[in-house]
Amino acid sequence: MPQTRAQSLATEIERWIVERELAPGSRIATMDELREQTGLGRATISEAARLLAERGAVDVKLGRSGGLFVAQPAAVVRLRHTLLSVSQDPARVTDALAVRDALEELIDVDAALHRTRRDVRDLEAIVATMRTHAASRADFLQANWALHRRIAEITPNEIARSVYLSTMAQVEGLPSRPDADTADEDAAYLGRRVDVHAELVAAIAAGDPARTSRAVVAHRALTSPNAAPVAPPD
């Protein structure tokens, strides 16, 4: 379904926040300035402001010195798992990721035990796509999520698969934007993530549960800011 003008403007304002590296509390624009810059009417701008406020991306202040301001950090959850800032329902996102992480080893070890040649070909093709897009965060993340969905499809455990895919959908379905705080890490960090996922796929392809478990630990260490460093897989 095509976006409304208000939705498109809300998306554009979120892009401004990232590109201009606006800090929390920074003024984005007044309503009148937005009218002059976009040529849109008051109703459309008010609706865009409402959408952004609901997402937790902006604070709307009234009065002569009012306008749209970048929301304070409390309204945003930054996810090193995804290199994104998610500004809607952060508690649900955090809970979903916790459940997904708890199921990761079960899902991946099952994949190692039950993979077929076709499964392995599919996984290796997605890793190749990840490597191709290792300089583009948005494209990389799409491939990253596709890889974990494809791994989950292998397990015969229907309950685990259903819960795991559902938790992924909780994150993927929410409005999000690239996290400017991690932008300078892309070249090195995304490269390391590709290597970790390549090892995970290699372990699954080898049908080696122990090696797969080690790869899962390495994956957690890379995507969780609180995890202890892990030695590279043998």
UniProtKB/TrEMBL annotation:
GO MF term (any one): DNA-binding transcription factor activity
Domain of life from the UniProt record: Bacteria
Keywords, comma-separated and alphabetical: DNA-binding, Transcription, Transcription regulation
UniProt keyword Transcription present: yes
Record protein name field: GntR family transcriptional regulator
Residue ranges of coiled coil: none
UniProt keyword annotation of Translocase present: no
Segments forming domain HTH gntR-type: 3-73
